[in-house]
Automatic annotation (TrEMBL), chain A:
Domain YHS: 412-453
Domain of life, source organism: Bacteria
Single GO term (MF): monooxygenase activity
Protein name (database record): Phenol 2-monooxygenase subunit p3
Pfam families assigned to the protein according to its UniProt record, in alphabetical order: Phenol_Hydrox, YHS
Native species: Thauera linaloolentis (strain DSM 12138 / JCM 21573 / CCUG 41526 / CIP 105981 / IAM 15112 / NBRC 102519 / 47Lol)
Stretches that traverse the bilayer: none
Keyword annotations: Monooxygenase, Oxidoreductase
UniProtKB/TrEMBL annotation, chain B:
UniProt-listed InterPro entries: Ferritin-like_SF (IPR009078), MP_mOase_hydro (IPR012078), Phenol_Hydrox (IPR003430), RNR-like (IPR012348)
Molecular functions (GO terms): oxidoreductase activity, acting on paired donors, with incorporation or reduction of molecular oxygen, NAD(P)H as one donor, and incorporation of one atom of oxygen
Source superkingdom: Bacteria
Protein name as it appears in the record: Multi-component phenol hydoxylase subunit beta LapL
Keyword Oxidoreductase: yes
Origin organism lineage: Bacteria, Pseudomonadati, Pseudomonadota, Betaproteobacteria, Rhodocyclales
TrEMBL record, chain C:
Pfam families: MmoB_DmpM
UniProt GO MF annotations: monooxygenase activity
Annotated source species: Thauera linaloolentis (strain DSM 12138 / JCM 21573 / CCUG 41526 / CIP 105981 / IAM 15112 / NBRC 102519 / 47Lol)
Protein name: Phenol 2-monooxygenase subunit p2
Similarity remark: Belongs to the TmoD/XamoD family.
InterPro entries, per database record: MOase_MmoB_DmpM, mOase_MmoB_DmpM_sf
Superkingdom in the source lineage: Bacteria
Keywords: Monooxygenase, Oxidoreductase
UniProt keyword annotation of Nucleus present: no
Length: 505, 330, 89
């Protein structure tokens, strides 16, 4: 018999089904409840895991092949970058502040996503879902590692990178990102998926990776462009996983809608806050700018997010509750963040600075309704103080939001002259918030958020407010890692080295 | 801008990240070190898991193994994502060439029918066992402590999936999709497979990550791979004329040789840490090895018949000798 | 109508892919940015294997797109011959 002639030729979808979903089976010796213990307590009802649609049908052979190709390209470029002093191709070394924030706050988030996806890649009962989550789990450790490897060479020449592992656990501003990922990981598998797979990946990471990485290219940073775009090529799979997962939950049972909507509301706002710093990276930290945060928001927030929520409307999903407040904050947030970073720059393992006259002209052109009116005068004042030899520093205790952990530096959605401040009392204790969005999140799960580790109060209670002891504890080297870029070691080194590289003196 | 290297003399300000200098001294760090050590959050975790408030988000206390430093469980292959992926991509090239060779020359079709039947009977249901291994290694990665220990488990889990997919392709090449259905029916209901399926399902409810590592990667696979791929496919079946099948399982044989060095290194480091650890490991090893051996006898019988007991006994002896080198005796 | 998009790294490998996408999607708008090319289309965008193969002059597996893909937007449907992005409205 000629076997070949009788063999069924499988299409891609059927072949993928055979090579993944068909591997699983109904357990007979242990109950499904015992094997998948965490899949019911959140209240999401799933009747048929086979209805899950696989987003990209990658089998391991193709995964190894294509990922290896990406890896070869990536390491070839960063090796060349290190060997050729690629850091001297930067437009300006102040740009490195953005990378320092990235390494201290975002790369640990990649690692947390790796762990979280490994967990849900085991906890979800459907094979298709598990495989997609597992691929994301292995991708995410890739991202953490490629970022560390790309920045390793910068660490050899510039300050602020050396203690990223200590900063991750101890310094105040990284707590913003880590509390976000800790929040997702401490949630159940479905909420984790909405948090990271949908809200973070689908709605928000384009804002982080696409315009910012394009900006890195524009500023001569080939190492970062390479890890950024190389990571983002995995994100296309992850975003699609997030979208498929949300559609799956909504199609499985109408009772899932209010739970999913609640998570979308929560995680949009959490994500908007945690990625808010990207606004400053784009508007202030790129010496040459590709587009403003406002312009990026128009493309990836308004246009793309709008399309997404119009698509999901068929399930009864509405845009996230905080969407309008977010829109009102867009023209203010990068300025508010940068002013905050500047006044607390003694406590950051990266530099900030006063924008130059050129920078301010650009900012006022990009933010015609807000910059000249609200922020230029404050920069002018700060500039005067610096010129007078009394630079503006705030050693006071920043009031941190109990939910997002950012200092409460934002203004009221309808009134940019008034700082927004909310509080609530729970079991006799008073808790502070930066916004209605954060207060609502707290009030929905107070028992979770009262556990938050708040780094600033920890400084004052454990170290008695001794700033030098605190700097030791967070491995911050005073006078090197922190403060104004103007006059910093990084600035001096970069100018000297670049001088050596471009002249014969 | 082009930099003229001759004129540039710039001094690095430091050799490596602080946490690596503390561990390895003030010298440049390897990419394995950068990508593995201390990259899991260690302090000031914010919230307790809602799925189990008795645990911390990263909790070294959910296993009975106790380590002062979980990063002592180094992977001797020093795999980080890139080296892992490049290694597997190269092996995948070979495997793909092997599949193409067997296919293009019609070698599968030339197998004697009883030989083909034997191959399908043995190998196709194992794709489900490999899926079980994937679940278990994903678990160890997710809940284990410290990147040095957990990251290779993620790679291992993806390898388990790859192996399940190679076995599925082998089944389709030798016997069409129907062969996969028959294999699944045997896995679910065939008497020869039930002890193994029970073993795999029992592993799926073990929530001590290190015990699961022992049960899956040492006790079960430590017997299964040498028995199935070395003793039966490369030995018995090749001798009977099925060397084409050995080409299709070359990956599994090589993979086992590579990964057992990692498994042994982990066991050895954990046992060397304390008498307590050694005793716990010995208990687990004795328990799971007995069960694995019993589960594999009827599977091996499918091909070796009456010789199965002898083959399993010989492999148990070899496995014990291997594990004794890690200072774990059972 | 909502916009779907796909963004690819700007390099020699993607040039024929971008050409193919333009051929198959006359409404598409190609935006060239530093190091990347973003292609927007109203409602729907199709990437066809055959068209890419014609541009490339060799066989092409649509999964090769992964290597140079930066991001995309819209519901994804992929089989051997096409990758389609679309929004339901």
């Amino acid at each position: 018999m000629d076997m070949k002639a009788t063999k069924k030729k499988l299409g891609m979808k059927e072949r993928y089904r055979v090579l993944t979903r068909d591997l699983g089976w109904e357990p007979g010796y242990q109950s499904k409840e015992a094997i998948f213990p965490y899949v019911r307590y959140e209240g999401i009802k799933v009747h048929d895991w086979d209805k899950w649609e696989d987003p990209f049908r990658l089998t391991m052979d193709a995964y190894w092949k294509y990922q290896a190709e990406k890896e070869r390209k990536f390491y070839a470029i960063i090796d060349a970058h290190a060997q050729n002093n690629g850091h001297l191709n930067l437009t300006d070394a102040r740009y490195l502040s953005a990378l320092k924030i990235f390494l201290q706050a975002i790369s640990p988030g990649e690692y947390a996503a790796h762990k979280g996806f490994a967990r849900i890649g085991r906890e979800f009962p459907g094979v298709g879902t598990q495989v997609a989550c597992q691929m994301q789990a292995i991708d995410e450790i890739r991202h953490a590692q490629t970022q560390i490897h790309a920045m390793s060479n910068y660490n050899r020449y510039y300050d602020g990178f050396h203690a990223f592992a200590d900063a991750r656990d101890r310094i105040w501003y990284t707590s913003v990102a880590r509390s976000f990922f800790d929040d997702a990981m401490s949630a159940g598998p479905f909420e984790f998926m909405i948090a990271i797979g949908f809200s973070f990946e689908y709605v928000l990471t384009n804002l982080l990776f696409v315009p910012f990485m394009s900006g890195a290219a524009y500023n001569g940073d080939m190492a970062t462009v390479t890890f950024g775009f190389s990571a983002q090529s995995d994100e296309a799979r992850h975003m699609t996983l997030g979208l498929e997962c949300i559609k799956f939950m909504l199609e499985q049972d109408p009772d899932n809608l209010p739970i999913v909507q609640g998570w979308i509301d929560k995680w949009f706002w959490r994500g908007f806050r945690v990625l808010g710093l990207v606004s400053t990276m784009m508007d202030y930290m790129l010496p040459k700018r590709v587009m403003s945060w406002r312009e990026a928001w128009e493309i990836y927030g308004v246009e793309n997010g709008g399309a997404l929520f119009r698509d999901l409307a068929r399930y009864g999903i509405r845009p996230p509750k905080g969407w309008d407040d977010a829109e009102k904050a867009i023209d203010h947030m990068s300025h508010q963040f940068m002013l905050g970073l500047y006044q607390w720059s003694f406590g950051t393992a990266f530099h900030s600075w006063i924008p130059s006259d050129d920078d301010m002209a650009w900012l006022s052109a990009k933010y015609p309704d807000t910059f000249d009116r609200h922020y230029r005068p404050r920069w002018a004042h700060i500039k005067q103080l610096k010129a007078a030899g009394t630079p503006f520093k705030n050693y006071g205790l920043a009031r941190l939001c109990q939910c997002c952990q950012l200092p409460c530096v934002f203004t009221e959605p309808g009134d940019p002259t008034l700082t927004c401040h909310r509080e609530t009392v729970y079991k006799g204790e008073k808790y502070q918030f930066c916004s209605d969005g954060c207060k609502d999140i707290f009030e929905h799960e107070p028992e979770k958020y009262i556990q938050a580790w708040l780094p600033m109060p920890a400084l004052f209670s454990e170290l008695g407010g001794d700033v030098a002891a605190w700097m030791d504890w967070v491995s911050l080297r005073d006078g090197a890692d922190n403060g104004d870029y103007d006059g910093s070691r990084d600035q001096r080194h970069f100018d000297e080295w670049r001088g050596l590289a471009t002249s014969n003196l | 801008m082009q930099i003229d290297l001759r004129t540039v003399s710039i001094q690095p300000q430091r050799n490596a990240f602080d946490h690596l200098v503390r561990r390895f001294g003030d010298k440049p760090a390897s990419r394995y070190q950068e990508g593995s050590y201390d990259i899991q959050a260690a302090e000031n975790l914010h919230y307790r898991p809602t799925w189990d408030p008795d645990q911390q988000l990263y909790d070294a206390g959910i296993t009975r193994i106790v380590m002062r430093d979980w990063y002592a469980l180094k992977d001797p292959r020093q795999f980080y994502y890139s080296t892992y992926t490049l290694t597997r991509a190269r092996q995948q090239d070979t495997t793909e060439a092997n599949f193409a060779f067997v296919e293009s020359r019609g070698l599968a079709d030339r197998l004697a029918p009883e030989l083909r039947e034997a191959v399908l009977r043995l190998l196709v249901p194992l794709r489900h066992a490999a899926w079980g291994a994937n679940q278990n290694n994903t678990f160890v990665c997710g809940y284990g402590f410290g990147t040095a220990f957990t990251q290779p488990c993620m790679y291992h889990a993806m390898d388990n999936l790859g192996i399940a997919q190679y076995l599925s392709r082998l089944g389709m090449m030798l016997g069409d999709v129907d062969a996969l259905d028959a294999g699944k029916a045997a896995w679910l209901d065939g008497p020869a497979w039930q002890p193994l399926r029970r073993y795999v399902e029992d592993c799926m409810v073990v929530r001590d990550p290190f015990e699961l590592f022992v049960a899956q990667n040492a006790a079960l696979d430590g017997l299964l791979y040498p028995l199935v791929y070395a003793r039966i496919v490369d030995g018995e079946l090749s001798a009977r004329g099925a060397s084409a099948v050995a080409m299709l399982t070359q990956f599994m044989a090589e993979w086992f040789d590579e990964t057992r060095k990692w498994v042994d290194a982990v066991l050895k480091a954990a046992a060397a840490e304390s008498d307590h650890n050694r005793e716990v490991l010995q208990g687990w090893m004795a328990h799971w090895n007995d069960r694995a051996a019993a589960a594999l006898v009827p599977v091996v019988e499918l091909v070796l018949g009456a010789d199965a007991d002898e083959a399993v006994a010989a492999q148990i002896a070899a496995f014990k000798a291997r594990i004794h080198k890690t200072e774990i005796s059972f | 109508m909502s916009t779907v998009f796909i963004a690819l790294q700007a390099n020699e490998e993607t040039r024929p892919i971008i050409d193919a996408i333009e051929i198959d999607n006359p409404q598409a708008v190609v935006n060239r940015q530093p190091a990347m090319v973003k292609i927007d289309a109203p409602g729907r965008l199709v990437v066809r294997r055959e068209t890419i193969e014609e541009q490339l002059g060799r066989a092409y597996d649509l999964q090769e797109l992964q290597i140079n893909l930066i991001t995309l937007s819209g519901n994804v449907d992929e089989d051997e011959d096409t990758l389609t992005l679309s929004w339901n409205e």
